[in-house]
User: Fold these one by one.
Assistant:
Number 1:
Amino acid sequence: MNVMRAQPIVLAGMLALLFVLWARPSQAASPMQVTVSILPQAYFAKKIAKNLAKVSVMVPRGSSPATYEPRPSQMADLTRATLYFAIGVPFEAAWLHKFARMNPHMRIVHTDKGIQKRTLSTHLHQKTTDHPPSASSVLPGTDPHIWLSPHLVKKIARNMADGFTQADPEHRQQYENNLKSFEMELDRLDHRIRAMLNDGKRKRSVFLVFHPSWGYFADQYGLKQVPMEVEGKSPSAMEMVRLTRYAGEMGIERIFVQPQFSKKRVEAMARQMGASVVTADPLNEDWEKNLLHVARQFKQALD
C-alpha cells in the first residue's frame, strides 16, 4: 500500500517539475547571434538588445576597418548569425557580399541609413564639401566615422533597434524601451561634452589630427579638425611647411593620432613642428567613457 500511495506523489512531483521547465522557456532560449563591424557598434548593440543578443565584432582591437580581412573562424561564425550590422567602414565594400553568400538567411542592416556623409577632410589648403546621403554604405571619399557624434549615434541606434525588431518582433517593446533609455544617455553625454568644450575658456576651435577621424565630432561641437594625412597619404614637404606655419600661427602644440596608425611616423613630423603627440582612439570599445576622455584631451589642446 505504501508503494502504491508513493507512486501518485512521485508522478505529481515529476509533472510539477515539467510544468516549471515548460513555463520558463525564455531562460532556456539562446540569445540571438549578431555580428557588427567595429567595437563601438558592439557597445550600441548591447545597449539596445541587452541579454537578448550575443554580439560578435568583426574588426578586433588594434586592427583597422580600412584594410581588415576576416579570419576563417569569423567567416564560419557568420553562418550562425541572424543579423549583421554594417556601418559603412571601408572593408565592408569588399566583404559584405561575401558575408551574404556565407549566410543567405542573415539580415544585413545598414546602420548608417539616412545619415548624410561628409567628404573626408583634405589637407589644409584644400576645400571640402558634403556628400549627399545614399543607401550605399561605403562611398569612396566619404568619411565613415559617424559613430563619433552622439547626435548621429541616435540614428545608428534607431536603425539597430529596427533591425532587432524585424528579426525578433516578440521582444519589440524591450528593444524600444532600451532604445529610449540609450537615447537619454546620449543626450546626457552630449550635454556634458558641450558644457566642457564651451565653458568660455577655449582659446581656439581648431585641432590638428594625423588621420581625419573626428570630423563629425567637430561638426557637432563647433570645432574644426585639420588633418595631416588623407586617404593614406602623408603630407608632402610643401604641405609640412604650410602645416608648421599654420600650427605656429594658431598656437597648436599637439597632434592627435589614433593607435591603429604608426606613432613613430607622426612623432617624426611632430618634432619637425615642435609639437607633441596625443593618442585619440576612435575605435575604443568603451564608447561613452572614451568619447569623454577624448573630449577632455581636445579641451586641453584648445585651451
Number 2:
Amino acid sequence: MNNQPDIRQILQLALDKQAADIILIGNQPVSLRVNGEILPMDDRRLTLEDTHALIDQIFSFTDRRERDQFYTTGDCDFSLSLPGVGRFRVNAYRQRNSPAAVIRTVRFDLPDPAALNIPPQVMRLAEIQKGFVLITGTASSGKSTTLACLIDRINTERNCHIITLEDPVEFIHKHKRSIVSQREIRLDTENYATARRA
C-alpha cells in the first residue's frame, strides 16, 4: 500500500490471495483471513484517519442509506459489487468509538457442494417442499454457502418460483428451471416481517 490506503487495491489483493475476509480495524494492519488464518497484509498499522478513509471509500460505492445507517446506528451489513474487481459482503461497525469493517469476498460462481464436502444428507434438504429448515452455525462456518448450494439444487432440479430474503444478498442465482427472486432487506423491502407478509 502507498501512503494513502486504497480500498480497491486491498480488495483486489484479497481476491488474488483467495482470502475469505478482509479485516479493517484501527491501530492494526489490514488483515486477511486465508485458509482460516488471519494474516496481516503488511506491517503498516492503520491510523484512525486511514480507517475512516477506507470506510468512506467503501460507502462511496453504495447507496447513501448504508452510510446513513452506519453513522446513525453504529453498524450496517450490505453487499457490494465493483465492476472489474468482484463482489463483497460488508459488515461495517464501530468499536472503541472508531469505525471498523469485515469484508467477505464472494465468488461470482456458485460453490460446488461436493468440493466443499457438504454431506448428501444435507443436500437432500432441497427435496423438502413443505416445512421449515434451519441452517445454523458460527460465523464463517458455511451457512450462506450451504444455503446457496441448496437453492442452486432446487433451481436446477425443480420448476418453481424461489424467493429469498437476504441481508445482504451474497450469492447471485441465475434463473435455471426455476425463477429466483432475491430480495435484499432495506434495499428491496423494509424488513423481514414486511417481506414475509408480502
Number 3:
Amino acid sequence: MLRRHVEQQTPSVVAGPIEFRFTPTSPVSVRLARRVVANWLEAHPSVDGDGFDELLVAVSELCTNAATHASGDVGSVAIRVRFENAAVILEVEDDGPGFDPDEVIDLTRIESYDEHGRGLFIVKSLVDEMTVDHVHGRTVVACSKDGIIRT
C-alpha cells in the first residue's frame, strides 16, 4: 500500500459581512458592539494592526452617539461591518431625530468645557471617508478605513 504525504492546508477564514443590532439601555451596549467588531476583525487572517485601534475608537464614538440619540426601542441601533477591496466599511444606524453633520463637526462652535460634540470630528479624523445619510427616518453614518487589510 502506497501512502503519500499530502501537506495539510489550513483553511483560511474569511469573515463575511455582519450586522449587530442592540437596544441602547446601558453603556455596556456600546462596549459589546465594540467587542463584536473587534472579534470580527480578529477572525480575518489578513487583518493588520495598523488602523485596527482607530477603527475601534470610531465604533465606540459612533455607537455612543447612536445610543444617546436613538429611541431606545428594541434593536433601534444597528452596526454593520464588511470588507470592500482592502478597506473596512463601518455603518452605524439609529432611529434618532437626525442632525446636520456640518454643524456638529465644526469645532469652532464647541466650547472648551463642553462634554459633547466632538465624536464625529474624532471619527472623521480617524477614518479615510465618512458620510451621513438619512434613510427612511433613520440616521446612517458610514465610514471606510484603509490599511487594515494586508494585501
Number 4:
Amino acid sequence: MRGPRFLDLACGTGQVAFALAPYAGEVLAVDQEVEAVALGRRKAQRLGVANTRWLVAGAEEVGRVVPHLAPGGGIALLWGGDPWGDGRDWQGVLRVTLDRWQDTAGTGDRVPAGWWEAIDRIPATQVLRRAGRAYEGKVVFRVPHTWGLDDLVGYVYSTSYLSLRARLLACRPGGEFEQDLSYAYEYARR
C-alpha cells in the first residue's frame, strides 16, 4: 500500500471516502447502517474505486484506532450543513412537520436527549486533547446552497423522517429552498 491511510468513520454512503480515495493508499469507510455501506460499496465497484474497504460497525467498535495513529497522523472531525434551520420560513415548515411526525410515530428517541447540549459541554477541542492530540484549529466555511424539492425530501428520507413534499411545496411552489450551509473541520496531530 502506498500513500496515506484514511478512516471515514460514520461514512454514510461515502461522500468523504470517495473524495479522499484519489489521494489515499487506503480508505476504510465505516458506518453502522448496513444499507448505507452497501450503497457505498456498490458505487465504489461501479466507479472502479478499489482502495476503499467498506465495513459495517459502530464508531465505538473502531474508536480504538485513534491511539495507534502513525507519527504525524491526524484526525479531522467533519461537520456539514443540513436543512434544519437558520430561520427561513420553509425550515419552520420542515421542523414542525418532522416534530409532529416523530411524536406520532414515537421516534423522538432516535437522537439521544441532551445530545447537542453534551456536544456544547465537551467540545471537540477537549475530546481531541483528551485523546492525546495536539489541537491545530477549526476551519468553518459557508457556501450558498439551493435545495431542490427532491433533494430535501431525499435528505429527510435518508434520516428516516416522513416525506414532506406537499407541505414544502405549499411553502415554496417552485421547489427550491435557499440557505447558506456551514462546513467545518477540527484537526489534531499526534
